[in-house]
Amino acid sequence: MDSRLAADLAGLPDLLTAARDYAAGILDDLGERPVAATRAEFAPQPLPVAGVGAARALQVFRERWAPGFSGSAGPRYLGFVTGGATPAALVGDWLTGAFDQNAVTRQDSSAVDLERETVGWLRSLFGLGAGHHGTFVSGATMSNTVGLAIGREWLGAQQGISVARQGVAALGDISVLSGAPHSSIYKALSMLGIGRDQLRTVPLLDDREAVDVAALEAALAAIDGPAIVVANAGTVNTVDFDDLSAISRLKSKYPFWLHVDAAFGGFAALSEDHKHLVAGLDQADSICIDLHKWLNVPYDAAIQFTRRRDLQLNVFQNAAAYLTPPEGDPDLFHLTPENSRRLRALTAWFTLAAYGAEGHREVVERNVAAARRFGEQVAGLPGVRVLAPVRLNVVCFAVDDVPAVLAAVARSGEAFLTPTVHRGVPALRAAFANWRTGEADADRVIAALAKALADG
């Protein structure tokens, strides 16, 4: 054994203690750590011929790389839709690495059974029935891709075709309809061979990002054959929700696969005041929910639900002499593109076991309260125009000079926001999804924003 590797094995408890103490210090200071780090140019170093050992590698990381890392796990990182890692989820993540399970088969581990239990907990959390089967994937993009891949197979089945065997060209023309699709939908259609240009956007309701269901029905009526409809439960800019129940009722008249992108809006189901926004979610054929957003587990973790596991198996099954066959309750390598992966479910299992539905409901409701407080205060700042009601956890607002304000807020170290364009208007988004975030954090971001506007 290499001498450095042998020394690290012998000193492993001390190494883990050193890493623990360093990580604890980082987390302890997270509330005051600069939220956005100053970008610097790093010249890549050559691969070491002889390593320096884990202790020295930790020191090099602390000195060279850590200062440039963002405070994205903290309470005032409001860019994209980014959660953090609850204490229990972090414990689960560390143990995921320690056990290092390839969580795709029951042949040698109970890891798959743990994932099955966690899927059941999540199904209950989001108000889904037993007809929905779930599988962990890397993120919302992959969850959308898997759901649309199953939908593609369903399209073929309507014509007596197996796309998994005959290829997407056997389908002919494919119709995909959506009101305000997330960019990952286009990416998924590209990867699946359906094509970005096959997505037809349907008119939205006035001053909304929700689809006009009457316009959707007209579009479906004009299609000769089955289609895919991508509905949204929480749009990017304004967290708007399509009327899932009304869309589902159209299935009695028109043949279509209903995929719902509920990447973070699905968490509205946890709140009594907001669960009406996802009424009808259980009627979807496939659903995307991103767990490293509002469940606050570390990257990467999402879940994909579907009612048609049989079609999912058609697409993703894998045959080899050393693998179990895709029968009964299949092993997980038969259900997603990955043949091997880490036990992503363990972080979700830990945080759900530790805090339950009530604990995560409190996080959602506290974040919504902080977003509303921020929305009320930002509307009073000079030169700011709020572009949509604060329906859940995102505030979308316009300022005169978006790049300058973004840069000034980031330089302050107080917050990080991301830009967007809403109905042709350049804007900013503040997304509240971190388990630490409260109204006091909203106040600090408002102060930083007010200063950036005054100095600009």
TrEMBL record:
GO biological process, one term: carboxylic acid metabolic process
Record GO terms (molecular function): aromatic-L-amino-acid decarboxylase activity; pyridoxal phosphate binding
Keyword tRNA processing: no
Modified residues (N6-(pyridoxal phosphate)lysine): K293
Keywords: Decarboxylase, Lyase, Pyridoxal phosphate
Keyword Manganese applies: no
Co-factor(s): pyridoxal 5'-phosphate
One Pfam family cited in the UniProt record for this chain: Pyridoxal_deC
PANTHER family per record: GROUP II PYRIDOXAL-5-PHOSPHATE DECARBOXYLASE, MIP05841P
Family: Belongs to the group II decarboxylase family.
Name of the protein described by the UniProt record: Glutamate/tyrosine decarboxylase-like PLP-dependent enzyme
Organism, scientific name: Actinoplanes octamycinicus
